[in-house]
Amino acid sequence: MRVAWKKINTGSGGLLCSHCRWKVFVAEEDPSKGSPLMFTCRGSDTVASTLISIFYHLADDPSQMVKLRAELENVNSVPGLDALKSMAHLNGMINEALRLHPALPSGGFRETPPEGLTIAGHFIPGNVVVSAPRYSLGRRE
Description:
This protein is mostly helical. The protein has helices at 2-10, 14-17, 21-25, 35-42, 44-60, 62-72, 81-85, 88-100, 134-137, and strands at 109-111, 117-119, 122-124, 129-131. Helix content is 54%, strand content 9%. A two-stranded antiparallel sheet has the order 1-4. A two-stranded antiparallel sheet has the order 2-3. Helix 1 (2-10) crosses helix 4, helix 5 (44-60) crosses helix 6 and helix 5 (44-60) crosses helix 8 (88-100). The chain is elongated.
């Protein structure tokens, strides 16, 4: 919650949140009312970087824009979950953007157990911190 408030107060989340700051966030007697808007502010950085990646690749390869427009051409309202799942090209664009430009490029860090661990045929001694960086894995052949 502290990070979201910092974004709001320093400007990066202010446009989104300022219109309802006092209506939603000051309602301390029922903090659950602020949750949806707070989640929007918290996820804005990762969503923004993913959208930028998608737009970059669409601009770089206009044929992908043509395919995406064709897939979205007959959508007249906000699609439901089943309709979104069936949009193969849209899902492919999102997944490829996340693979090539992950919003969080570093993987989670883990520590091997005290007795050690074998990963992909390689023994890793005990109590060693290991990581699988998403950025590198997304470019692996």
